[in-house]
Amino acid sequence: MTETVHVGLGDRAYDIHIGTGLLDRAPDLIASFLKRPRVAIVTDENVGALHLDALVNALESQGIATTSLTLPAGEATKCWAELTHVTDWLLDEKIERRDIVIAFGGGVIGDLVGFAAAILRRGVRFVQIPTSLLAQVDSSVGGKTGINTRHGKNLIGAFHQPVLVLADTGLLGTLTKRDYLAGYGEVVKYGLLGDSEFFQWLEGNASHAAEGDMEARIRAVKRSCEMKAEIVMRDETEQGDRALLNLGHTFCHALEAATGYSDRLLHGEGVAVGCALAFELSARMGLCSQEEPSRVRAHLRDMGMKVDLTDIAGELPDADGLLDLMGQDKKVQDGKLTFILARGIGQAFTTSDVDRDVVRAVLQDSANAG
Ligand code: GLY
Questions:
Q1: Of the CATH numbers 1.20.1090.10, 3.40.50.11190, 3.40.50.1780, 2.60.40.2150, which one belongs to the domain with range 181-367?
Q2: Could you tell me what percentage of the chain is helix, strand and coil, using 3-state DSSP and rounding each to the nearest 5?
Q3: pLDDT, tens digit, for every residue of 77-136?
Q4: CATH number for the 2-174 domain, one of 3.40.50.1970, 3.90.1300.10, 3.20.20.450, 3.40.1280.10?
Q5: Which of 133, 228, 249, 267 maximizes ligand 1 atoms within 8 Å of its Cβ, making it the mutation to test the pocket?
Q6: Could you give the residue numbers annotated as active site?
Q7: What distance in angstroms lies between residue 93's CA and the mean position of ligand 1's atoms?
Q8: Can you give the residue ranges of every domain in the chain?
Q9: Dihedral-angle region of residue 261 (phi above 0 means left; psi in -120 to 50 means alpha; beta otherwise)
Q10: How many angstroms is it from 86 CA to the middle of ligand 1?
Q11: Ligand 1 pocket by C-beta < 6 Å: which residues?
Q12: Contact 51/37 with Cβ under 8 angstroms?
């Protein structure tokens, strides 16, 4: 069973296929993009060990030659040195402008390889085959590519849309529960920012999806991709509405910086905590009733996810320290923090009109929760 979501971006439009068995169907789905029967695949050690043979065998059995590069797994791979490594390798492999590069992995591989494709010979086409839930619902869609530098995450990059995304939900079965739930932080974000019916559906079905119900997984990934596609079609380069996708991220980025971007807090876990805090802040500012943050928290707790600062292992800076970290966020404009707040579940909006004292109180209460 597969579903398709179309991202209508004119001459950069593409389809996202979602479902099981897509690695086997990759040759058919990619064939129409090939000017010659040869692709370059970049993956990481974890995904490579589990799934690279299946992809290579599927492609080669249909007469498509492959060459592949396997990089170390982990966020540290999204760096200048690995970007040089990938681009030099693609040039060594004589990958030409008309060829296709495949990014086969989670968000790190998608962002790095997408950026390499954006700059190689001033731009080659690439296909995303995301293997983590987070990459399937967020990072593989929408064309944001890039690397981290010592100044922060994703500060060097380009908008470069893939020509095709194959989100094989069958691959999610090899994720750890923690990685799956971290990706779920981005799924729940879509319901919270713009679709209360989807959030309600998640309240009833997300636990089945987490346990492996494939129909529920496909529906969750599909609705997430539809929502992301709708927003990206309205605002591809984040001049306005695309910022809504950053619900929970102002808090999340400060918490990730405070925890050293380590496995104390995975990105999607930070997004979930950030969403709970953004709803709490919205209620305290009188934008929505207290029932809304309570409902958000209850669902995240039901899923076994982190909700409060007390759920993050180890010491954290105090509320003022976290506010200072928020001040380094990419979204700061004229020295003012930008938050995505909500008038209710599914009704998010962007504002810089937020009182620092109220944010401090929300952080202090979350640090004393329990
Ligand atoms: N992950 C946020 C965006 O793609 O805009």
A1: 1.20.1090.10
A2: 55, 20, 30
A3: 999 999 999 999 999 999 999 999 999 999 999 999 999 999 999 999 999 999 999 999
A4: 3.40.50.1970
A5: 228
A6: 122, 144, 186, 228, 238, 242, 246, 249, 253, 267
A7: 31
A8: 2-174, 181-367
A9: left
A10: 23
A11: 138, 142, 144, 242, 245
A12: no
- Report DSSP state, residue 135: I
Written as six digits, the tokens of 74 are: 């982990």
In the block, which residue shows the tokens 């605002």?
235
> How remote is the CA of residue 294 from the centroid of ligand 1, in Å?
26
- Strand 65-71 to 38-44 pairing: parallel
pTM greater than 0.90 (yes/no): yes
Q: Which amino acid is at 101?
A: V
Q: Where are the alpha helices (DSSP H) in 120-248?
A: 133-134, 177-194, 196-211, 214-234
